[in-house]
Design brief:
The chain has helices spanning 15-19, 22-38, 51-66, 69-73, 125-151, 159-163, 179-183, 236-241, 301-313; strands at residues 11-13, 41-45, 85-87, 100-101, 104-109, 168-174, 187-188, 190-193, 199-204, 210-212, 221-222, 230-234, 251-253, 269-276, 283-284, 299-300, 325-332, 336-343, 349-355. With 356 residues, the chain is of the alpha+beta class. The chain has a single domain (11-343), classed as B-lactam Antibiotic, Isopenicillin N Synthase, Chain (Jelly Rolls), CATH 2.60.120. It has an eight-stranded mixed beta sheet with strand order 1-2-12-9-14-6-5-3. The relative contact order is 0.15. Bound molecules: 2-oxoglutaric acid and fe (ii) ion. Keywords: Iron, Metal-binding, Oxidoreductase. One of its GO terms (molecular function) is oxidoreductase activity.
Length: 356
C-alpha cells in the first residue's frame, strides 16, 4: 500500500539514528516522541533489518507452526516467571470476561530458553531465532536511547537497565478459521490489550486485521500492513516511566482486510512481536518534571511482568481468570528466583521456583 495522507500512523525513517549526525538524530527523536505521545505507535522504515530478512523470519515461523501439534506441545510454556516456549490456541487470555483469542505463539528468550527446538536442528530454527532476536534487541536499544534526549534523561540512563535485559521474541500464527467464528461476540484473533514491557517491535505479514485505539477513545483504526516496516509501540512500563507522556495504547487483531476464501475460511495471519523488558531487577520510577505529580508508584519490572503473565496464562488461578492476582513475595537469589502469587481473596496461592 502506498503511504499517503490516509495512512493512520507516522512513518519515520530510522536511518539518521544509525548513521546521521547529532542534529539529524535529534530530529528523529522528536518525531518518535510526537508519535508516541499522540498515538503510542509509529512505523519505522530503514531501521537496519531488510524486508528480505523479515520474509525469511516469517518462513521460519511458518515452518515452526506447521509441525504436528503433539510435537509443538512438548515445548509448552510451563512457567509465568519464564514465559518461554509454545502456547496453543486459546491458552492465553487477558480478557476477564472470557473473550477468546484464536492464535498460537512461540516465545523465545535470551536466558532460560530450554523449550526451544534444539540447536543444530533441521532447519536451524534456534540459530535463526537467536540472530533475529539480537537484531531486534539492537534496534530496541537504539529506540530507547533516542528517547533519552526528549525525555530529558542522561544518555547512559538505559545502560544498567538493558545490560541484563530479558526481552521476549514472540512468533504468532492466527490460524485459518471460519469467518463466522470470528464474527461471534467475544471472539478475536487477539483481544484488546496493552503490552506490558517498555515497548514492542512488531512485524506483520500482508493479511491485515491489526487495529489500534490510536486516540484512546475506544475507536479502533486499522494499522495497515506496510511491507518492510517495523511498528514500534509504547508499552505499560514506558508509560509509567514517562509519567504518561508516552502512551501505551490498546490494540487488537480482528477480521483481515482481505476477503475470506470461497469456503468461508479466513487466511492464516503471521506476525512477530519483540517485547522489550528491562533487567528484572530494574525499578521503574516515574520521571517527574518540576511542577508535575504522578499517579504511579515505583514498580519492580520483574515482579510486574510475572504478575501480568500469570494473569494472562492463568497459572495461579487456572479456573478463575477474573480474580485479581498479585505477587505477595518475590526474591531473587544468585541462582534462583522465587515468586509467590496469591489471589486477593487469599483462596489460592502457588509458589513457583524457577532456576535462572
Ligand atoms: O499480531 C499482531 O499484529 C499483534 C500481536 C500483539 O499485539 C501481541 O502479541 O501482543
Ligand atoms: Fe500486543
Amino acid at each position: 500500500m502506498a503511504v499517503d495522507d490516509e495512512f493512520p500512523f507516522p512513518v519515520v525513517s530510522f536511518q539518521p539514528i544509525l548513521t546521521g549526525g547529532e542534529e539529524e538524530k535529534a530530529k528523529v527523536a522528536l518525531q518518535l516522541y510526537d508519535a508516541f505521545h499522540t498515538y503510542g505507535w509509529v512505523y519505522l522504515k530503514e531501521f537496519g533489518i531488510s524486508a528480505e530478512e523479515i520474509d525469511e523470519m516469517f518462513g521460519y515461523s511458518k515452518r515452526f507452526f506447521d509441525r504436528p501439534e503433539e510435537e509443538k506441545l512438548k515445548d509448552k510454556v510451563v512457567s509465568a516467571a519464564y514465559c518461554q516456549g509454545y502456547t496453543a490456541n486459546g491458552a492465553e487470555s487477558s480478557d476477564t470476561k472470557g473473550g477468546r483469542s484464536h492464535k498460537e505463539c512461540y516465545e523465545h528468550r535470551r536466558f532460560n530458553n530450554d523449550l526451544c527446538p534444539a540447536a543444530g536442528g533441521e532447519d536451524g530454527f534456534r540459530e535463526f531465532a537467536d540472530s533475529f532476536y539480537q537484531k531486534c534487541f539492537t534496534l530496541a536499544t537504539e529506540v530507547l536511547r533516542a528517547l533519552c534526549i526528549v525525555l530529558g534523561i542522561a544518555p547512559t540512563y538505559w545502560d544498567d537497565k538493558l545490560a541484563a535485559a530479558d526481552p521476549q521474541l514472540r512468533f504468532l500464527r492466527y490460524m485459518s478459521i471460519p469467518k463466522t467464528t470470528l464474527e461471534k461476540e467475544g471472539n478475536y484473533r487477539i483481544e484488546p490489550h496493552t503490552d506490558y514491557g517498555l515497548c514492542t517491535l512488531l512485524f506483520q505479514d500482508e493479511v491485515g486485521g491489526l487495529e489500534v485505539d490510536r486516540f484512546h477513545d475506544g475507536k479502533f483504526a486499522p494499522a495497515t500492513p506496510l511491507r518492510g516496516t517495523c511498528i514500534i509501540n509504547v508499552a505499560d512500563l514506558l508509560q509509567r516511566l514517562s509519567n504518561d507522556k508516552l502512551r501505551s495504547t490498546r490494540h487488537r487483531v480482528m477480521m483481515p482486510l482481505m476477503e475470506p476464501r470461497a469456503d468461508g475460511m479466513l487466511p492464516a495471519r503471521y506476525s512477530t512481536a519483540f517485547f522489550v523488558h528491562p533487567d528484572p531487577a530494574t525499578m521503574i520510577v516515574p520521571i517527574v518534571k518540576e511542577g508535575e505529580t504522578t499517579p504511579y508508584e515505583p514498580v519492580n519490572a520483574g515482579e510486574w511482568r510475572t504478575m501480568i503473565t500469570s494473569r494472562d496464562y492463568g497459572y495461579a488461578l487456572p479456573d478463575s481468570k477474573d480474580m485479581d492476582v498479585k505477587i505477595v513475595a518475590a526474591s531473587k537469589g544468585e541462582d534462583y528466583m522465587n515468586v509467590r502469587l496469591e489471589a486477593k481473596s487469599g483462596a489460592v496461592s502457588k509458589t513457583a521456583e524457577v532456576a535462572t
